[in-house]
Amino acid sequence: MSIAAIIVAAGRGTRAGPGAPKQWRSLGGRPVLERTVSCFQRADIARIIVVLHPDDMITGLKLFGGRVTLVAGGETRSGSVRNALESLDPKEISKVLIHDGARPFADPDLISRVINALDSAPAAAPAIPVTDALWRGAEGIVSGTQARDGLYRAQTPQGFALQPIVDAYRAADHAAGQLAADDVEIARAAGLPVTIVAGAEANFKITWAEDFARGEKLIERERKMDIRLGNGYDVHAFTEGDAVILCGVQVPHNKALLGHSDADVAMHALTDAIYGALAQGDIGRHFPPSDPQWKGAASDIFLRHAGDLAREMGFAISNVDVTIVCERPKIGPHAGAMMDSLAQILQIDVTRVSVKATTSERLGFTGREEGIASIATATLIKGA
Ligand code: MG
Questions:
Q1: C-alpha 362 – ligand 1 centre gap (Å)
Q2: Which of 144, 194, 235, 326 fits a 20 to 30 Å CA distance from 42?
């Protein structure tokens, strides 16, 4: 069973100032609505339905072609959502996310939090606890205060198991439905418990003219994001011994690797990949082999240094990928321990670390089992 997303963009809001409705205006060179829809174009969302004002259907068709399903909106927001919900086939779709067309910065983690919460709840929605003091006011004068305990600022996408929200909409009294501020209100009126998940400040709704300036700034920041790739390659020859060290893990073998340090060929390749991404030379530059203090050194010193240097230069290590080339020893049984070891040294989550192996089909020096080669790639990210 799959997930659908309904993006509601049928409004004619006037608070954002004169000109075209806000969802059609340009933000960073693309219509707001196109940005919003792109947030939901991901593997785990099977269908995207965009609800448009009947006058906007041609514009929508030109913009999206067949990438989304267009549905004509009703008189009110809740009428529009109901039209979209009724267009979904419960045999095909089990969960639905309902999102404001004017929230173009819904990030993948936020969307995942809502989807994941639906595994154990019929309804879930993002929100941010209110931290500012709250006042009531009239004619520019504070007329009272309001306790903020337990108050949240509601966001979208609001997620629901499909059948319960369809039933809730069908059961909603027409007048009450017209007044409902959002889908959570409709769900609660039908008795559905709604789980709160963490919202995101960037997931704001474009409402006023100045929100466009805020959005442009966010996009500018994304554009300034600095993404670096580095690669590393290393070879060490076999010598007499009974084990090799690869990615910090001792692997029993009928040979050892020859080198100035512990000859951890895989960790050296990865260390050079990180230095490469930073344009900071290689291991030899930071730890000269002519310096006797690095003789026999455990290579985690080198990798830790590269990781620390990345952080000092403002980069986060987004992922690393290491390939070890050898006929023997077998790497597969040790790959998990190797990934744990690299993740721990680099202080990153193990889901961002890959260690894999290949043979060279008995060709060349690795094929003749004269030594082991390794290549590695690292992705570093600064900003955003
Ligand atoms: Mg080396």
A1: 22
A2: 194
